[in-house]
Amino acid sequence: MAKNLRTRLAADDSLIVYDANPKATQKFYQENGESSSRDKGVVVAKTAREVAERSLGPFGLFSVIYTFAQSQCPESLQAQMNGEEDGQCLAPADCTQNTILTALPEPSHVQSVYKSMLNGALPVPPPSASSAGRLYIDCSTIDPMTSSAVAASVRDSSPEDIFIDAPMSGGVVGARAGTLTFMLGAPQSAMDRATAVLSLMGKRIFRLGGPGAGITGKLANNYLLAISNIATCEAMNLGTKLGLDAKALAELINTSSGRCWSSEVNNPVSGVSKGAPAERDYEGGFGVSLMRKDLRLAMAAAEEANVKITLGAHAQDVYNQVEKAEGNRDFAVVYRWLNKEE
């Protein structure tokens, strides 16, 4: 993500990066700052607060900031930082200016980072700044309650600033290629600015409604993903145990009503989906622990809203057992777990 941002931003824009792991930011700076033709455009911050303080800079010099804890993030976020996709500058400085992106693993991390950034008065934009206030874009997958609380803290800190929830989807492949999907909960008035930034890293940007809508959409999607992955693993196991060729079965499913992302893109059987984690002993990809987290958040949101769901608890039990047996491999490892359980 950070590599795509730096490559596609205007040459006179600056990217401020903060990571809980200093080695990660130093490596990024060495690869994209010191030896880059845009060596003036990468700044490593020491704290999240420094990111917020420098986000306006003199005359909006520091325009886009990426804040995350890579040491605790899924591989997809690490891939975004180290992405190799080059491209054209797609966004004018007046749209990307004064923007802070956050991407963190857990609700508590998001709360901590924003508490640090918003602790005390921040510099106000100079009169000549082309963008009014800061735009905070949180790409984390957290619960709606936490996201709403953070949005309120941003409003309380400065009425001119805007907070958008924009969780992402697309995995490692989408992160590296800059083809992520972003689901936004945002006021319509902020969409031009948000789209200008997010289009540097993704191909599909959906506004689902006002604040909180993006998080809700992501949790609904990943609730479905959690269950369809288990069903795909069981279906592939059933068919192959009854004598079907795995590739033939997958082709049938993917041209029939059972087709889904887990059957087509992330098939759990090695040799079926090219480049899928199943071909690498389920290393990389979307870890079981992250699937458990998203499922937990979706179930908590359903309980909070008094929405009836029936399959989530069983799916959570499956992933708990899988993680104990297989560790934090890609969640398609459910397929191997099923075989071991028989």
Q: Short description, anyone?
A:
Helices cover 47% and strands 13% of the residues. It is α/β, with parallel strands linked by helices and 342 residues long. The longest helix has 29 residues, at 213-241.
List the helices and strands and how they pair.
Layout: H1 2-8, E1 14-19, H2 22-34, E2 42-44, H3 48-54, E3 62-68, H4 75-81, H5 93-96, E4 99-103, H6 107-117, E5 135-138, H7 144-157, E6 162-165, E7 168-169, H8 171-177, E8 180-185, H9 191-198, E9 202-209, H10 213-241, H11 246-254, H12 261-264, H13 288-304, H14 312-326, H15 334-341
Parallel strand pairs: 1-2, 1-3, 3-4, 4-5, 5-6, 8-9
Antiparallel strand pairs: 7-8
Helix pairs in contact: 3-6, 4-8, 6-7, 10-13, 10-15, 13-14
What does this structure look like?
With 342 residues, the protein is of the alpha/beta class. It is built from 15 helices and nine strands. It has helices at residues 2-8, 22-34, 48-54, 75-81, 93-96, 107-117, 144-157, 171-177, 191-198, 213-241, 246-254, 261-264, 288-304, 312-326, 334-341; strands at 14-19, 42-44, 62-68, 99-103, 135-138, 162-165, 168-169, 180-185, 202-209. The strands form two sheets. A six-stranded parallel beta sheet has the order 2-1-3-4-5-6, with helices on both faces. The chain has a three-stranded mixed beta sheet with strand order 7-8-9. Helix 6 (107-117) links the parallel strand 4 and strand 5 (135-138). Mean pLDDT is 81; it is low at 35-39 and 58-93.
